């Protein structure tokens, strides 16, 4: 890790909504070329944390720093201008608009000037296709509506857009949660690429198989508070899984499932043992025996 200032840092940040304390006293740092995975149950405050980082919410208390300098954003576009790009859980894309339009949304390249100024769609189409191609997505027609892309491809448009416009920090709120194995791996590969390009990445997921391979560190949230940050070499995959789900709950689920399995096995043994005898009485009586036995 470098001795440079963290790319993004939170110091003792609180966010309250009226009487609800969504996050409390959060301190967290992410450096260049590092993936920080945010873990925590539903309602733990993960989305609130990243919305506070990306200018959607103003912190009720505490400080944000970007590249070592205090940041005080009034809006998400302020944060975006400072290089903090966020792909929200409720993906901000317009399904009926084309890939190119979604890619450039609000930042269309223009040609000409004065009254002759117009959007350069030819150039825009070419860039959108090239950028998608770089991450291995072959767009045949950039005028294709985004709504016709698969979930993974749509996530990739959002990420490619962020990287193209010079993001320094990439924040991803559950980008892989609705994806199949193959598509999730496209997104994960892209996260790894963003890290290799020197971006600081904050990645939220509930899936340990997605988190563990790409993360350098994990921060665990519980009911709005941080339970700490762990470097990858300090924790095993099982420990991360426990952190995600709450260890105690998993253990009791484990016990319940093995009890269930034992009962089933027992069931099978009885069925097998009783079959020859019951076969003599025909299938009906064997069914009756089982039904009354259990
Ligand atoms: N705008 C808001 N107004 C009031 N309460 C809010 C608001 N946003 C979030 N909260 C509350 O803050 C808490 C944390 O919510 P948040 O969405 O950050 O959780 P999360 O960790 O992202 O959960 P999930 O895994 O389900 O996405 C919840 O109790 C939620 O109800
Ligand atoms: Mg959330």
Automatic annotation (TrEMBL):
- MF terms in GO: ATP binding; ATP hydrolysis activity
- Alphabetical list of SUPFAM superfamilies matching this protein: P-loop containing nucleoside triphosphate hydrolases
Q: Which InterPro entries match?
A: AAA+_ATPase, ABC_carbohydrate_import_ATPase, ABC_transporter-like_ATP-bd, ABC_transporter-like_CS, P-loop_NTPase
Domain of life (superkingdom): Bacteria
Keyword field contains Kinase: no
Looking at the record, which segments are called Disordered? Answer: 264-294
**Which UniProt key words apply to this protein?**
ATP-binding, Nucleotide-binding
Domain ABC transporter: from-to ranges: 8-248
Task: Return the protein name.
Answer: Monosaccharide ABC transporter ATP-binding protein, CUT2 family
Q: Which organism is it from?
A: Aidingimonas halophila
């Amino acid at each position: 890790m470098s001795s440079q200032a963290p790319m993004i840092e939170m110091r003792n940040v609180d966010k309250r909504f009226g009487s609800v304390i969504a996050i409390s006293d959060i301190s967290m740092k992410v450096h260049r070329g590092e993936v920080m995975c945010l873990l925590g149950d539903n309602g733990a405050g993960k989305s609130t944390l990243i919305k506070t980082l990306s200018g959607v919410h103003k912190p009720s208390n505490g400080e944000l720093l970007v590249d070592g300098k205090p940041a005080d954003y009034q809006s998400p576009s302020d944060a975006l201008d400072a290089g903090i790009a966020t792909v929200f859980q409720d993906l901000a894309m317009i399904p009926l608009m084309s890939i190119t339009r979604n890619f450039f949304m609000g930042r269309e390249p223009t040609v000409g000037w004065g009254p002759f100024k117009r959007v350069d769609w030819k150039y825009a189409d070419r860039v959108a296709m090239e950028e998608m191609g770089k991450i291995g997505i072959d767009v045949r027609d950039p005028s294709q509506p985004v709504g016709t892309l698969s979930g993974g491809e749509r996530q990739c448009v959002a990420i490619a857009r962020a990287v193209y416009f010079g993001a320094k920090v990439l924040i991803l709120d559950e980008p892989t949660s609705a994806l199949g194995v193959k598509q999730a791996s496209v997104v994960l590969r892209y996260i790894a690429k963003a890290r290799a390009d020197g971006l600081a990445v904050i990645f939220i997921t509930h899936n340990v198989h997605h988190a563990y391979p790409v993360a350098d560190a994990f921060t665990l949230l519980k009911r709005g508070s941080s339970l700490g940050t762990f470097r990858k070499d300090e924790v095993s995959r099982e420990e991360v899984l426990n952190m995600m789900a709450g260890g105690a709950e998993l253990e009791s689920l484990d016990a319940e499932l093995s009890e269930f399995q034992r009962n089933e096995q027992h069931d099978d043994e009885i069925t097998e043992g009783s079959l020859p005898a019951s076969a003599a009485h025909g299938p009906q009586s064997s069914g009756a025996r089982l039904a009354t036995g259990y």
